[in-house]
Amino acid sequence: MKTQNKTIVLVGFMGVGKTTIGKKVAKALDLTFNDSDKLVEEKVGLTVKEIFDVHGEIYFRGLEEAMILSCLSEDQPQVLALGGGAFINDRIREVCIEKGDAIFLKISWEEWKKRADDLRPTRPLLQKNSEDEIHTLFEARQQLYSQAPTTIVTDNLTIEEIVEAIQQR
Ligand code: S3P
C-alpha cells in the first residue's frame, strides 16, 4: 500500500457523506480523523445550529477557518472532513489544495434532494433558505469544489465503494 503523507481533505455539499466516509478511510489507513464542524462545536461548546443561532454565520466561518488551517499545519497526515461551505473560502481552498490531498465527493442535485429532509434539523442553511435558493447555492459551489484535484461521483456508489475509491486513487 502507498504511504499517505498528506492530509486527505474531503470536500463537497452537506449530506454527501464526508464524515461517514472520512471515518472509514481514516480507519482503513490508520490515520486520525477530524471533522471541521466537530472541531468548531468542541471549541465553542455548542452545536453548529446553536452557533449560527447565537453568534451568527460569520462567527462560525471564522472559527471554521482557524480549525481547518490548524489541522493542515500539523506534520502528521490525517483525514479531514470539511463542512460544506468551508471550501468556498479562498484561503482554505488554497491551503487544502497545496498541503492536502483534496477530494471532491460529488452528488447530483436529484440524489441530494432525496436526503434534504433528513439534513434539515441540523443544517441551519437549509432552515433559512428555500429549495430554489439552496439549488442556486449548490450549483454555485460545484465550480469551487471542482478545483479539488480529485473528484469522485458518488451517486451510484455504496459507502464502501467510495472508501475503496479514495484508497485506490
Ligand atoms: C454548511 C455545511 C455544514 C456546516 C454548516 C454550514 C454549508 O457541514 O458546516 O451547517 O455551508 O454548506 P456539512 O457539510 O458537514 O453538513
UniProtKB/TrEMBL annotation:
Protein name, per record: Shikimate kinase
Annotated TM spans: none
Locations listed in the record: Cytoplasm
Keyword Cell membrane: no
One GO process term, biological-process aspect: aromatic amino acid family biosynthetic process
Lineage: Bacteria, Bacillati, Bacillota, Bacilli, Bacillales
Role this protein plays: Catalyzes the specific phosphorylation of the 3-hydroxyl group of shikimic acid using ATP as a cosubstrate.
Catalytic activity, as annotated: shikimate + ATP = 3-phosphoshikimate + ADP + H(+)
GO molecular function terms attached to this record: ATP binding; magnesium ion binding; shikimate kinase activity
Residues spanning the signal sequence: none
PANTHER family: SHIKIMATE KINASE, SHIKIMATE KINASE 1, CHLOROPLASTIC
Family membership: Belongs to the shikimate kinase family.
Residues reported in the UniProt entry to bind ATP: 15-20, 123
